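Lab notebook: predicted structure, single chain.

Context: the supervisor wants predicted structures on file for every construct in the current expression panel, including those that have not yet been purified. This is the next one on the list. No modifications to the sequence; it matches the entry in the shared construct table.
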Amino acid sequence: MSNPLALIVDDEPDIRELLEITLGRMQIDTRAAEDLRSAREWLQKESFDLCLTDMRLPDGNGIELVETISKHYPSLPVAVITAHGNMDSAVQALKAGAFDFVSKPVDLTMLRKLVGTALKLEQATASKETTPDNKEKNGELLGKSAAAEQIRTMIRKLARSQAPVFISGESGTGKELAARLIHEQGPRADHNFIAVNCGAIPQELMESEFFGHLKGSFTGATADKEGLFQAADGGTLFLDEVADLPLNMQVKLLRAIQEKSIRPVGAQKELPVDVRIASATHKDLSQLVEQGEFRQDLFYRINVIELAIPPLRERREDIALLADKMLTRIAEHSGVEKPRIDRDALKALFSYGFPGNIRELENMLERAVALCEGSNICLDDLLIPQSIATLDNQDTAPELEKGTTLDDHMEKVERELITKALEQTHWNKTAAAKKLGISFRALRYKLDKLGIE
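Prediction complete. Output recorded below exactly as produced.
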């Protein structure tokens, strides 16, 4: 097999030579160009596997080359070389379609990692093409609606980039699943995907959790500890509910993203980390920025590309498919025969607004499987917690007033179970959530909803 071929674009001979030597030692052949014109000529003459370009060129800038490559050579990963600290240019390049960036003076270790990741793109794409049926096996985002297909298309596109991605959407829409699929379909798939709920970490432990610490750096630090960034090195760090980060931690996170390095608590030196950042929240981050509760510069850095996940009520045509797949999984896990949903129950699901989205649908079906008699789920088994009158079916509300009574009953049972779990765990919310089999965030939501202090 022939060596990969890289195009190096820089007007400084010393930089071109450094990059050619470095890539040559990685068994990568190179072609060099000193300006945009000669770079475009090379692109027309040969087929490249990678392009590295400086931002400042004699006859233009690297953004123009990124745009040209994105338009005419979309499968070619291009990384830009920026001046130290010039994150605005880096973000602009990422938004234009750059694969990644590296700052001057070029750190050769980070450069080699970037090049290695870029060359894995073609392998990752080929792997997906040879296993077209792997979507449902690996928990792919299911659905036949236009919205579901649009999400899948965006996920495939985002998997080819290393730009920070911000995933927005209501609670329960599947934001973590989307982040995981971006990771699994990209060149970082053979490294860790680390997910963290930013709202579940005690504020005094945040710096240690994210960046690690050295033994003896504070009371209770009895051994060195690896942080989340080190655990995700080479892979993806998913920051769920990033809006819950306190302002002082936002500053430290911003620096880690910009410098691509972190300093463990108690350490004297910074450690380079190669991590792709994905973040999500159900809150309106732009509004929090206006209110001064979220740093604008951090918002700008993590929101390079946004993926909006629509609520379930905007993709109702996917409900039947989702319900069928969920029932298959629930039945297998419970060791029971897979039940079917009768017509009235399915109609009710189509009509319900699902404020809790896909997570609420799954919880509803788990209860229904436990409650149903035989192998048939009827309307009463669903325990829909409120009138299912919606824009699609306004005239069903009068027939379902008994749902209010069921809702009151379920709320009473839920309150008793949560209170009992909290008492048994001495009001440790994390332990209580684990005992109840729900997430910490779900417990916190229920405590607010039920007014439990």
